[in-house]
Specification:
By secondary structure, this protein is of the alpha+beta class. The strands form three sheets. It has a seven-stranded antiparallel sheet, sandwiched between helices. A hairpin with a 5-residue loop joins strand 3 and strand 4. Helix 2 packs antiparallel against helix 3, helix 2 packs across helix 8 and helix 3 crosses helix 5.
Length: 371
């Protein structure tokens, strides 16, 4: 039986196979990225933008700042100190979670831009954390506003700020993200979230301006009793009891505002520790010598009246951590105790807070455990 002859490879009749050459060792970078992939689309869109996208981002940042201002007004409207902690925690979570898992903030949602990663999806937690940390410097209104972020975005080809470059994220127009368009349900949820935030920032402030006013415009007078129940102060300067500071420094009463820009501290000393013949004036002179040293500057030294009783007042300036503070120290006595009432504030707040704190100190009176 005849058999088919094996073709001679050199005859040109052998089948042709396109076998790729083995890439040089160490140079293989995986399969090529096709021009139509989502990552290349996102980058191409970012490269196509002009300065208009930076203006949109700036507008979004300003709208976010306005939202924060509105929420702060809401905090004042409800007049609840616990809400201050909620507000402080809300700001980082606003960017970290809201932008991380939706790509939007209130500002971005209103001007129709979205933060996305290279595949067009929202940044996610890790990338959002990087963006949020760098935002502290780039868009902080207390430092340079949004100027550093704007300069960086204008100077880069992909219109990225430092946070974008570090996290490998982009900010694109929503109209250019149709290939990642969310479902109707997702759109409805997003609309609900941002409508709720906007209403919370706007409605209480409108009510305050037109109907009720802010409670802080007329601070309520609050009576605070010492921990031993022997005296009380009536405060109208917006202070609150600071129990942690009382324990830390061993005071019988500490009042301060939330940010501790102003405080009143009361120390109580049993007269029996000084001897029966020590007068209030003697006690004042001893304490004056102790309070004033080379680091302080005497401003005023005078007699005062507290609830009709004689008292001594010492006003001086001192330093704490290289910052100047003003001290108004009032010395008063009750039958069994001497009391040192110290009002403290930053020097730049003295003209504003000094009279209010003096008014609170002037309400000092003995209660013997009853308010």
């Amino acid at each position: 039986m005849d058999q088919n002859p094996i073709a001679n490879p050199s005859s040109g009749l052998a089948p042709k196979f396109n076998i790729p050459a083995t890439p040089p060792e160490g140079n293989y970078k995986g399969p090529p990225e096709f021009p139509g992939s989502q990552s290349s689309q996102v980058e191409a869109i970012a490269r196509s933008y002009g300065s208009s996208i930076v203006l949109r981002r700036w507008a979004a940042t300003m709208l976010d700042f306005i939202t924060f201002a509105g929420l702060l007004g809401t905090l004042l409207f409800f007049d609840n100190p616990n809400l201050a902690l909620v507000f402080l925690g809300f700001i980082p979570l606003y960017y970290l979670l809201l932008e991380g898992f939706t790509g939007y903030t209130v500002g971005k949602y209103l001007v129709r831009i979205q933060a996305v990663r290279e595949d067009g999806r929202p940044p996610g937690f890790v990338k959002s954390l990087i963006r949020t940390l760098l935002r502290i410097v780039e868009t902080n209104p207390l430092f340079f506003g949004a100027i550093p972020a704007g300069i960086c975005a204008l100077a880069t080809k992909k219109k990225q700020r430092l946070g974008d470059m570090a996290a490998n994220t982009y900010v694109l127009k929503v109209s250019d993200l149709r290939f990642m368009e969310p479902s109707r349900r997702t759109k409805a949820v997003l609309a609900g979230i941002f409508t709720a935030i906007i209403c919370l920032a706007v409605i209480p402030n409108v009510m305050a301006w037109t109907i009720t006013g802010y409670p802080e415009s007329e601070p309520k007078s609050t009576v605070y009793q010492s921990k031993d129940g022997r005296f009380q102060l009536t405060d109208g300067a917006g202070l609150g009891r600071d129990s942690s500071s009382m324990r830390e420094i061993g005071a019988t009463l500490v009042l301060s505002d939330f940010f501790k820009n102003k405080s009143i501290v009361v120390f109580t000393y049993p007269k029996e520790e000084f001897g029966s013949d020590l007068s209030l004036e003697d006690f004042y002179l001893v304490m004056k010598e102790e309070r004033l040293d080379k680091t302080t500057t005497l401003i005023q030294d005078r007699m005062a009246r507290i609830n009709g009783e004689s008292a001594y007042e010492l006003t001086y300036r001192g330093m704490i951590d290289k910052e100047e503070y003003m001290y108004i120290v009032t010395f008063v006595d009750t039958p069994e105790h001497f009391h040192e009432i110290i009002a403290v504030m930053g020097q730049r707040y003295y003209e504003e807070y000094g009279p209010k704190l003096r008014a609170t100190v002037a309400t000092f009176k003995e209660t013997m455990g009853e308010i």
